[in-house]
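ARCHIVE CARD
CATEGORY: sequence design from structure
SOURCE FIELD: tokenized fold
FIELD CONTENT:
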């Protein structure tokens, strides 16, 4: 087990991380504290390559905290501590072999609220992750087209690539953020309620994008929309926190099982809308 207050490992060893597109991400006995308060306890979850795993559960049960732990955003919070391990292709991302910036290159993230760089063009937004990560790009035009196509945005913006990213609609901005994340070719893509502020049409397009990219990148998505979890995921993890207790995983398994024949009555009650 590892235990840390915010720190920045100085050794990078990307060569040991698999070069395959979709990563194998495994969390083992993860516990998280904020300013000494335990908020997440004993989470073990295997997020298999080329699958979509949905994290479901009521607000405040630790889903988003867990998601941020998966690419080391947790350690950006003052007073944050963590125990357990998170391994990408068998390499513990908290063990000092990878810098946080290298980890986030392999494990990208899309947030609840679209956050394109408003003063950058659509074209430059897509390439910004490559620049920040100092990844050489010989075919920038090809990367932009490929990334926007995967995000389902190319046909809508191909004639306006030099316009500002902040001028797009909310749904388009979110797909631009997905394209930006995909441009660096991550092995895992984390998505924190990516459709919560979007209209049904934009939501459907992002769900289609998730289905289309799942073969080449492992997706972990937090959602409060049970229908969305059923539509997009192959596996689910149900998080729950009792009053004055940390969040824990109650049950994990194939999505069909979690929604139709879960082993824990609390899971059945939640997915059927009896609480939460």
């Amino acid at each position: 087990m590892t235990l840390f207050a915010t720190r920045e490992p100085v050794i990078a060893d990307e060569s040991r991380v698999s070069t395959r597109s979709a990563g194998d991400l495994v969390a083992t006995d993860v516990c998280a504290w904020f300013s000494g308060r335990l908020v997440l306890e004993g989470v073990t979850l295997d997020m298999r390559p080329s699958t979509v795993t949905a994290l479901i559960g009521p607000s405040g049960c630790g889903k988003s905290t867990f998601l941020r732990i998966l690419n080391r955003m947790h350690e950006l919070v003052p007073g944050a501590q963590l125990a357990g391990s998170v391994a990408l292709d068998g390499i513990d991302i908290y063990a000092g072999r990878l810098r946080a910036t290298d980890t986030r290159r392999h494990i990208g993230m899309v947030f609840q609220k679209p956050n394109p760089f408003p003063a950058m063009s659509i074209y430059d937004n897509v390439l910004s992750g490559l620049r920040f990560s100092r990844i050489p790009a010989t075919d920038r035009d090809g990367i932009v087209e490929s990334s926007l196509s995967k995000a389902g945005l190319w046909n809508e913006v191909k004639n306006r690539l030099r316009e500002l990213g902040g001028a797009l609609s909310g749904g388009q901005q979110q797909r631009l953020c997905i394209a930006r994340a995909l441009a660096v070719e991550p092995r895992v893509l984390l998505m924190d309620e990516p459709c919560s502020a979007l209209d049904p049409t934009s939501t459907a397009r992002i769900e289609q994008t998730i289905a289309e990219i799942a073969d080449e990148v492992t997706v972990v998505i937090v959602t409060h929309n049970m229908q969305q979890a059923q539509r997009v995921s192959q596996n689910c993890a149900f998080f729950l926190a009792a009053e004055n207790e940390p969040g824990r995983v109650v049950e994990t398994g194939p999505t069909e099982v979690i929604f139709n024949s879960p082993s824990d009555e609390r899971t059945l009650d939640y997915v059927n809308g009896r609480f939460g």
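CARD ANNOTATION: The two ends are 32 Å apart (CA to CA). Residues 14-117+178-271 form a domain with the Rossmann fold fold (CATH 3.40.50.300).
SHELF: design records, drawer C
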